[in-house]
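Hey, sorry to bother you again with one of my protein questions. A protein chain has come my way and I'm curious about its shape. I'm sending you its amino acid sequence along with the backbone structure tokens. I owe you a coffee for this, so here goes:
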Amino acid sequence: MLQLQSLSLRRGPHLLIEGADVTVYPGQKVGLVGYNGCGKSSLFALLLGDLHADAGQATIPAGWEVAHVAQHTPDSEVAAIDFVLDGDAELRRIQAELARAEAAGDGLHQGELLGRLEAIDAYGAESRAARLLHGLGFAPGDERRPVNSYSGGWRMRLALACTLMCRSDLLLLDEPTNHLDLDAVIWLEGWLKAYPGTLLLISHDRDFLDAVTGHILHLDHRQLTLYAGNYSAFERQRAERLAQQQAASERQQREIAHMRSFVERFRAKATKARQAQSRLKALERMELIAPAHVDSPFRFEFAPAENLPRPLLRLDAIAAGYGDRSVIEGVGLSLNPGDRIGLLGRNGAGKSTFIKVLAGELTPSSGRLERAQALKIGYFAQHQIHQLHLDDSPLGHLRRQDPSATEQALRSYLGGFGFEGDRALGPVGPLSGGEKARLVLALIIRQRPNLLLLDEPTNHLDLEMRHALTEALQGFDGALVLVSHDRHLLRVTADALLLVDAGAVRPFDGDLDDYPAWLANNDPSRGSAATRPTGSPSIAASDGSDRKQQRRQAAQSRQTLQPLRQRERTLEKRMEALATRRAALEQTLADPDLYAPEAKGKLLALLEEQRQVCADLEATEEAWLEVNEAIDQAR
């Protein structure tokens, strides 16, 4: 077993862990969580022997093979599959020893070594390595490309495959999903579930932690606490602990009230509309999660957009790609304020291409794209992090964007994103990837966009910041298009799912829980026509009449949806007005003086008005849910 006994650990002058006593038993899968900078990666470094304890000790059973992902992948001409095979150190040792025995003509030793190779399934090693690469998103044939032909993100995938290739007893994974898309995350999730060894996993993806781990090790204020259960169970247990503290309890109630405000008007009629049911379930889960984050340092929200034109953006028969290669074709879509769309699709299917078209960063090769005059796009993509001015401060970035604001207002705003005090004044260059991502999000939100395009916004963000972003997006009044491997974020923020596949962008038939099954049934390694890469002969030879039919259907859908959307907006405004009046009446009726004999007439009038308002609100909610059902069917 892995044991920490009275362990204390420093990093420079900072005490990260103090007096920790933890036991992890063989085969347990443990998620290590805590805010950024609290010492999670330092604990990994200690277990790997790169750091030493300041007090106490950490012991790993003798003979255990420990695997972890290397931070840097060598710039090598070695083929990708050979690099992955190097992860099986025992295989490579026996192969090297066999080569020496053959050179020495030692037949007896050769026979012994061949038997050892048989015992470790060496003859199936290349097949296992290829499956790892395929699962992590590499296309057939890519395994023969040299390592140095891949970009940084793909080299990280190679490093992960190399680590998984090791037949380890203890596996240490630090944010393994950061450079993966949703398909690869789902595959890795399945692989880790079947992993027979002991797993220590640092991750900020709550769905991933829920699926993989059976224990959570929480590092907070220098203390390590081991909780039984997955991440959701940990949140509930921690919330119960925090609720015992009066100050935390008060703030917890404010968080819960904030969550309830989103679901209150849907609660009574949640059986009536699939969309309302989905949102209700997600928001009720948020209500349970909120108490575990009462001490989060992040607090921000979207200010109302200055203009909300309808539609914000309209695409008709759009095609786009790079050079002569078409990635998406025949795409029709109309985006209106309040639309919340999550994009699904395999890596390379065209999700980022589609978002770049929406953002205006990629010009369509054909079709028509209409933008509202008052359109204001907030676009988050990983390349924007690299466009920050490294010598400037977070405050300097914000002041350049909003020169008329006071320094105090800008510093207060930055404080909600974790840039408090001197952290708002230091240069951006030394900041971590997560801190830079937070700054880019702060700059985008400050612009008050009416169309928000988020391409993997949670990479490098910790759980607290992800929770704050999820909460803030609930109040965003514009349109949202989201690509993310964080399924919790997709569940809570997206009302509709679009599938980008085989050059098309179409509604996904199902919910997020159905997506893994779709992936399994449309595995390109089986030669499925549904997942044939864009540009293959079947697409190049496709009849133009199919695209015309798609455009006609898209136009009919838009024609059907337009009056429904208008009705939905009218009903939403009516519900808001009635809910406001009901709250005002309840406050008035709480006045004790109203129940005096001389005020009986006024009391009866108010009670009658309250009855009528409640009846009107119930009828309006019923109509709203019916409209949503009709919208759902039209989609």
Remarks:
- Residues 313-388+429-542 form a domain with the Rossmann fold fold (CATH 3.40.50.300).
- The chain has a mean pLDDT of 82.
- The first strand starts at residue 2 and ends at 11.
